[in-house]
């Protein structure tokens, strides 16, 4: 397209604005600024490793997780505006040489139940009478490994490797570890996020419950429920329609239709199932959705808590799923505040929306051209929502081996509406 020059009645305006292709700065037409909502602060920059999960403590400490790959550590703490260091120690972050094994020619993730293999998510629960403020670490036990042909793949999990670890933020020591039997965490499961209800009266054992999403690309997503007192775990809603990916869903990122190009695999679309999870402030309901759907769902926690010994547990759960309708796009991770708003990261819109259970509608919260793939989010006790920006659609894994990301990644934060803050009501 050629440069257009404005002229009025045949007289070329000397210093007239030029309206050129892809430059609308001088147009008289209405334009989309790409932004709305509260002020965004750039709080931290990532220059070493691209992050996935984030959790911010009561004193403002920032923790990040990084799935592996060849990264030297998988759990870190920001020590200044531009650097993070391994957390709680380098020793606990297994070296790259120990992330996977193979048996009879089949690759498996490490079965090490103490060392950190590949951490997907982190979540902080506040200090309570019976517990210190705790950083909960979700280790998938499934790193991405690269074969001799350069093709990446994710080996099956080995029992022990996939685990939940509780780290006390008071003494920076891991004080609890939970692993799963292979009937609950399948070899092709992938634990993507976690929420807690630590109230003593929720379980007989009195130590609270963890609700975990299994997003398994391989096709058996569902919920994993973990009793933190007994260590027992069970599944619910495995392969229920509400937890499955929408097959061949083509999202748009930065205005471009997206297909996944992975070396060694035909061109495909994203395959993750159940991904976003958030618990209501009264602990009665879990909101959730798959990455590739436009629909938001929820289920009463009572239906997740029912033990698998109840023969009607699955049927009752399946019958009690609520479809809250469409929300205007795909959503990645969720968060939630003390007002009961369900925040959803919307990578197609460079935005965060929230669902308001009070009037049954999804609403805009914040949008900005800097929000290029919001990944983890964390609402802290200071009333801010913190989010990781990691440019995920530009990673080599999805772009035929080319790394199209540009440093740095970032932690952005913005103030919540209506004096919303971290949910403190669940113990
Ligand atoms: C867009 O046009 C304006 C006015 O001519 C000019 O100042 C600006 O540098 C241009 N921006 C780009 C990105 O070309
Ligand atoms: C990891 O692999 C990438 C791509 O091959 C390479 O650019 C990078 O330097 C490696 N990082 C480490 C820490 O080995
Ligand atoms: C930030 O911390 C890193 C790691 O400890 C250190 O190497 C770097 O010099 C620090 N940067 C600043 C600006 O303090
Ligand atoms: C996995 O780990 C084993 C043992 O450390 C190693 O020999 C192998 O090359 C690794 N990669 C694959 C793809 O199995
Ligand atoms: C598991 O990881 C821990 C912590 O890094 C390490 O001390 C231990 O030797 C590992 N265990 C095995 C069996 O490799
Ligand atoms: C750290 O705190 C946890 C939880 O309160 C406690 O169980 C553990 O003994 C403490 N460890 C150390 C080394 O102080
Ligand atoms: C647990 O106790 C809280 C008050 O701490 C109460 O609001 C809630 O209804 C109780 N939950 C159950 C399942 O009994
Ligand atoms: C569905 O959930 C409600 C609570 O919201 C509960 O009262 C009801 O018993 C549940 N129904 C089934 C079939 O589990
Ligand atoms: C990936 O890159 C290779 C090498 O440049 C090229 O031959 C192939 O066509 C590319 N595949 C896709 C799906 O873009």
TrEMBL record:
Transmembrane portions of the chain: none
Subcellular location: Secreted
Domain of life of the organism encoding this protein: Eukaryota
SUPFAM superfamilies in the cross-refs: NHL repeat
Gene3D superfamilies: TolB, C-terminal domain (2.120.10.30)
Signal peptide bounds: 1-17
GO CC annotation terms, alphabetical: extracellular region
Keyword Cytoplasm: no
Pfam family, any one: MRJP
Alphabetized InterPro entries for the sequence: 6-blade_b-propeller_TolB-like, MRJP/yellow-related
Assigned keywords, A-Z: Secreted, Signal
Family listed: Belongs to the major royal jelly protein family.
Official protein name in the record: Major royal jelly protein
Native organism: Pleomassaria siparia CBS 279.74
């Amino acid at each position: 397209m050629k440069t257009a020059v404005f002229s009025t009645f045949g007289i070329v305006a000397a210093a007239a604005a030029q309206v050129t292709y892809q430059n609308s700065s001088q147009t008289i037409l209405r334009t989309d600024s790409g932004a709305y909502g509260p002020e965004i602060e750039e709080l931290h920059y990532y220059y070493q490793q691209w992050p996935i999960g984030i959790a911010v403590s009561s004193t403002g400490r920032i923790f990040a997780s990084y799935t592996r790959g060849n990264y030297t550590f998988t759990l870190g703490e920001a020590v200044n505006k531009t650097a993070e260091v391994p957390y709680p120690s380098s020793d606990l972050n297994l070296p790259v040489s120990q992330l996977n094994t193979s048996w009879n020619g089949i690759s498996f993730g490490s079965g090490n139940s103490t060392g950190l293999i590949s951490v997907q998510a982190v979540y902080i629960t506040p200090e309570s009478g019976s517990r210190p403020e705790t950083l909960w670490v979700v280790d998938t036990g499934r790193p991405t490994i690269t074969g001799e042909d350069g093709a990446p793949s994710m080996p099956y999990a080995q029992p022990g490797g996939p685990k939940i670890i509780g780290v006390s933020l008071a003494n920076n020591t891991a004080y609890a570890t939970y692993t799963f039997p292979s009937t609950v965490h399948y070899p092709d499961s992938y634990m993507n996020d976690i929420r807690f209800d630590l109230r003593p009266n929720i379980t007989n054992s009195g130590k609270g419950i963890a609700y975990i999403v299994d997003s398994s690309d391989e096709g058996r997503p569902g919920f994993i429920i973990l009793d933190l007192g007994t260590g027992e775990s069970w599944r619910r809603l495995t392969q229920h329609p509400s937890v499955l990916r929408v097959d061949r869903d083509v999202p748009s990122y930065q205005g471009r239709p997206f297909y996944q190009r992975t070396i060694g695999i035909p061109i495909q679309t994203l395959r993750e199932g159940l991904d976003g999870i958030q618990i209501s402030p009264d602990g009665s309901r879990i909101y959730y959705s798959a990455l590739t759907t436009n629909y938001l769902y929820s289920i009463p926690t009572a239906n997740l808590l029912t033990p698998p010994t109840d023969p009607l547990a699955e049927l009752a759960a399946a019958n009690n799923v609520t479809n809250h309708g469409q929300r205007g796009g795909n959503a990645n991770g969720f968060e939630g505040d003390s007002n009961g708003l369900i925040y959803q990261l919307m990578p197609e819109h460079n935005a965060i929306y929230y669902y308001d259970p009070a009037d049954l509608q999804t609403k805009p919260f914040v949008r900005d051209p800097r929000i290029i793939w919001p990944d983890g989010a964390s609402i802290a006790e200071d009333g801010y929502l913190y989010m990781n920006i990691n440019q995920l659609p530009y990673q080599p894994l999805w772009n035929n081996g080319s790394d199209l990301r540009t440093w740095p990644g970032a932690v952005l934060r913005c103030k919540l509406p209506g004096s919303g803050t971290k949910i403190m009501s669940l113990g």
